[in-house]
Every structure is written in structure tokens, then in C-alpha cells.
Amino acid sequence: MIIDLKYHIASLVAVFLALGIGILVGSTLLGNDALTRQQKQLADKLMLQMEQLREKNEAVEARASALEMDNERQKQFEKQVLPVLVRERLSGYRLAIIETNSYGFPDDLIATLRLAGAEVQSITTVLNGFYIDGNRQALEKKLGWSNLTDEQLTTRLAAEIARGLVKGKNKAMEVLVEEDLLKISGNYGVPLDGVIIIGGSQDRKMVRVQALDLPLIDTLLQYKVPVYGVEETGVLYSYMQDYQKKRITTVDNIDTIPGQVALVYALTGKPGHYGVKPTAQKFLPELDEGGQPADGKGTSGIGTDSRL
Questions:
Q1: Over 70: is that where the pLDDT of 224 sits?
Q2: Burial class (CB in 10 A: 0-12, 13-18, 19+), 100
Q3: Which of 70-84, 114-128, 139-153, 188-202 has the lowest mean pLDDT?
Q4: Residue 150 confidence (pLDDT) above 50
């Protein structure tokens, strides 16, 4: 809005200068007093409009500055209350993170989970959009698979990744690491209280939710492992609607403190769709006083909770 006003003011200045030149030329060549008066009146009107726009622009800039200050104070407040809201609520929880968007995730997410008492057992990152075109022959040769379409191969690999989280590293995961399609760190094959899938995309070509994310979710749910689908606020292509079809809990603003608080409470047994996008049903779960809720470790499924 500020940029538009500045552009408008610049346009008026240009018109005003052109009009001034026109008055000068017209007076010199024609000597027409009526024309000169008419041009002067128009110039005065333009000058008044320019002054009004300048005042409006100053007011908008002042408002923007005030909002920026309010936003900064809000962030400081959130950082201060975060420990009070989440500390030790996930004590004893073992979690795994799968990142399918290849963009990374907020650095403070791990810090928040640890502040809540959780142990992040492993972080699995899909690389290069998980496009297997250039690796297809190597993958088929090393794994002994054949006669699969690209989508079928991607889906089978996704299932193997999920299986590796639960049962331990497998050959498929090792091959994917060798082919620079996967990055793994941490402990695999340990009991898990939940898996956090970080999706969403900034590039339409990188969207693999049907062939990658959903098979991951399906396999994990088959192993009775709760799954939580999250993404950042600013992704251009949201996965929330697709995740919700699998009836798992979702958080669409995981890059914010409210989103991280929502995830922590969801993990304690408060399923739902949280965040700020149209697919969200609530901003936050019901917040409790004191320590860990009585219902303890929960499920990621939505079920028939009447609060949603």
C-alpha cells in the first residue's frame, strides 16, 4: 500500500510538471488568459491531491511502523511464555521427523520439542524432490526391482523409508543415501510415540504428496505409529488437505511458536487441525494448567472428537 501511494504521488508530480510546462508554453504562444486560469485551477487541484496523498502516505507509514513494533513485542511475548506452556509435557516421548519438502525446517522446532522433554530419535530428509528419473537404473539394479512405473517405484521406496523408521535401517534406505536421494541421522528401529512429517512446497514441480507423503503415512499407520503432518505458514502449495484425508492431526504454521505449541499439545493426546489456513479448524488445542495432561500419550487420529 505504501509503495502504491508513493507511485501515485510520483505520477502526480510528473503530471504537475507537465502541466506547468503547458501553462508556460500556452501563455507564451497564445496569450490566452482564460486558458491560463483554467490550467492554473487544474494545477491547484493536482497540488491539493498530492498534499492529501502525502499526508495519507505518512499516516500509512506510521501505522506500518506501529504494527511492526507490535509484531516484535508479540514475538517476544511468545518466546517468554513458550517454556511455561510446553516444559516437560512430552517427557519420555520418542519422536522421529521426516522432511519431504527438501527445504529444511525451523531451527527452533527441535529446541521446542526438547524443551517439552521429547527425544528426537531420528531426522530423515528427502533430497532433490525425490525425483528418481536419473537414478532409476541404479535403483532397480541395486534393489533388484523391475517393471515398476516411476510412481510405483517412488511409492514403494516411501514405504521402505517408513518401515525403516519402525524396524531399523534397510537396504532401500542405504541405496537412497548412496544415490543422494535421502539423508538420515539418528537412531532407527526404536519404539516411537509419534512421527512428524514436514511437507508443503514452494514449487509445483516439487509436489510429491501422492506418491511420497501419503504412502509414508499409510505405512506408519499400519505399524500403529501416530503421525502428525505439519508445514510452514508461507508454503505456496499446502499439503494439509491431503494429509487430513488420512485422518491425522495437522498443524499448518509450524514455523511459529503458536504452531509449535499446537503440535506439542496434539502429541499429548489432543488431535485436530490447527493453524491459520482455511484447512485449520482451530488455532490452538485447549491449553491445560500444570504439567502433562492426564490423558498422557495420545493418538494422531482425529476420531469423533466433538470439539473439532
A1: yes
A2: buried
A3: 70-84
A4: yes
pLDDT above 70 (res 197)? yes
Q: Give pLDDT tens digits for 1-39.
A: 444 556 666 665 665 666 666 655 555 555 566 666 776
| Strands in the chain per DSSP E | 94-99, 119-126, 182-186, 194-198, 227-230, 249-251, 273-274
- Looking only at the bridges linking them, the beta strands covering 119-126 and 182-186 are antiparallel
90-274 — its CATH code?
3.40.50
Grid coordinates representing 114 are 526438547
Q: What is the pTM of this model?
A: 0.76
Q: Is the model more confident about 50 or about 137?
A: 137
Annotate 241-257 with b (16+ C-beta within 10 A) or e (fewer). Answer: ebbbebebbbbbbbbbb
- Whose CA is closest to 228, among 258, 270, 180, 256? 270
Instruction: Work out the end-to-end distance of the chain between its first and last CA atoms, rounded to an integer number of angstroms.
Output: 37
DSSP state of 285: P
Q: Largest Cα–Cα distance in the chain? A: 95
Domain range annotation of the chain: 2-82, 90-274
In angstroms, the CA 263 to CA 77 distance is 19
- Grid cell, residue 214, equals 501419503
CA separation, residue 141 to residues 173, 179, 216, 298 (Å): 14, 12, 23, 42
Element (H, E) at 301: none
pLDDT at 80 over 90: no
